[in-house]
Input
Amino acid sequence: MGTGILSTALKGDIAEPMAVKEATFWMTKLNQLSKELLKLPIHR
Output
C-alpha cells in the first residue's frame, strides 16, 4: 500500500493498525539508510 493512501486512511481514521505499523517501519528504515548514504564522500 502506498504511503499516500495510508496517510489518507489514517486521517480518516480507517487505517489498519498493522498497515500503519508496517509503513512506519519501512519509512524509518529507508530514511535511516538515506541518512547513512549521505555521509559518503561522494556527496561532498
